[in-house]
Input
Amino acid sequence: MVTKEKRKEYNTKWKLDNPDKYLENKRIFNKQYNKKYPKRRTFTSRVSKLVRTGRLIKTPCHRCGGMDNLEACSFTDAENPTWFCNSCHRLVHEKIRELLEKKKE
Output
């Protein structure tokens, strides 16, 4: 069984050995992702610009109050996003997936 560390090591080496393929794959993935989720791209771009220009200040994580690796999560109001740290953001999406699966049943 391949460990997470081994996979990461392999991927890093592959990116360094194949920079052209890596950039092409990344470009294709981003194009497909942006086509599939246009609202996310627009929201993320808008929030990034507002933070960069100082018109939007990151607030502590909505769930735990932490300030590390904050991500905006709401996709509706770029002027007033809900901020989650990386670990809480993952938990929120896991909970959403669980609720959607229960709804399907």
The radius of gyration is 17 Å. The first strand starts at residue 71 and ends at 72. DSSP finds four helices and two strands in the chain. Residues 56-105 form one domain.
